[in-house]
Amino acid sequence: SFTTAAAAGTNFAVLPTAATVTPNPTQLFADGLTTSTVTISNINRSGALVANGTVVAVTAQSVYRSSNGGLILGGTPSPDGRFRLFTTVAGAVTVTYQSPVLNLFGGFGSGVIQVASTDAAGSPMALLGSGNVSLVRTSGVTPSANPTSLLANGTSTSEITLQVTDSFGAP
Q1: Rounded to 10 degrees, what is the CA torsion of 55, 67, 106, 165?
Q2: Cis before residue 100, ω within 30 degrees of 0?
Q3: What confidence tens digit (pLDDT) does each residue in 28-54 have?
Q4: Which residues in the chain show pLDDT less than 50?
Q5: Phi-psi category of residue 137: left, alpha or beta, with phi > 0 → left and psi -120 to 50 → alpha
Q6: pTM for this entry
Q7: How far does Cα 108 stand from its chain's mean position?
Q8: Which residues contact 57 (CB under 8 A, 6 or more apart)?
Q9: What is the DSSP letter of 91?
Q10: Rounded to an integer, what distance in angstroms lies between the CA atom of residue 30 and that of residue 20?
Q11: Coil, strand, or helix at residue 75?
Q12: Where are the alpha helices (DSSP H) in the chain?
């Protein structure tokens, strides 16, 4: 359900108005396993960092921006199940984004991590900032062997290397 009212006790005078969202790394395989550490910093109200303990809501679902999804790990549940809640220290929080499983067929997608202010009940109110993680699918594997020929004696060995590249051709 959607509501336009803020929870009783919400102090609009202290809600943050902006944040900087920085994922690292900024490119992941869309395999449902890889993760990015997302630093949400400079959480502020009109340029002044918010007080310690200010709660922000974080999502990777299509809420304020279009996103291919993924999970935000950690935090606590929000009344809006698309978000996780985190408490600031020194105007910042660090969260973990986990890629979704996508069949991109050599293409790419985008996981958009969005941070919102919250009302007194923990429901998201307004977008503070967002950051993007490029989601790619493996598009190639190149095997190589060293040496390429072996004696058939049951004891000879060869080192096999697999070079995996994403849809951009990067290892």
Answers
A1: -20
A2: no
A3: 989 899 999 999 999 999 999 999 999
A4: 1
A5: beta
A6: 0.79
A7: 15
A8: 78, 80, 83, 84, 85, 86, 115, 116, 117, 118, 122, 123, 124
A9: T
A10: 24
A11: coil
A12: none
